[in-house]
Amino acid sequence: MTCTTKSLYKSIEACPGKKNTPGIRRRLYYIDRRAIAKFPKLPDADDEGVTDMGKLAQYQGDFALESDQYFKFIDLKDEASNVTFEPVGENGSKLYNNQANAVVAGQDDEVKGFARQALNDDIVYVYQDRAGKFCVLGNEMFECHTSPSGDTAAEVTGAVTTTFAIQCYDECPVPTYTGKLKLSADEVLDCSTGEIEKLTNQPVPGEE
Q1: What's residue 201's pLDDT?
Q2: Which helix H or strand E contains 65, and what residues bound it?
């Protein structure tokens, strides 16, 4: 048998003076997996037209949602949340374990209500790093787990927090998303620019 797997390896150059700001931004977008009618596509190396290594980490297209469904958000505690990934599995069948610790200030009833629902649900999350890039936690192949925990703190100077530990397996480490997120009937977030756009009698992504 002749191996036909395409190789897209190329050099990765470090740019002197380039700043990589750590952390993620405060607004975390999320949606119930059942509200997604169709996921954007994550290209494979052997796909026709894929010639750039970077494209392997970028979703192509938009999330198509079920009727009257929208992405919602959670505002996080600033400078407290992070995202990690690491490989898991046996050689030849390895995947990435994508994880996040999303920390919310306080333990309001709305926060606990979300925690109660998300504990046994499959939620897809979209976060934005400090450089402005949007990335996805969750996919159509594997369930995304949300494990909430809380801390009332003990000292007067402590912080009351709720932490959502997010975990999902994926073929790609936190894929980049440059499509659009439907936020309401007349607003979408363009993840290629970070700008929220008002819709004026235009088709919503995924509903053309």
Answers
A1: 65
A2: strand 64-65
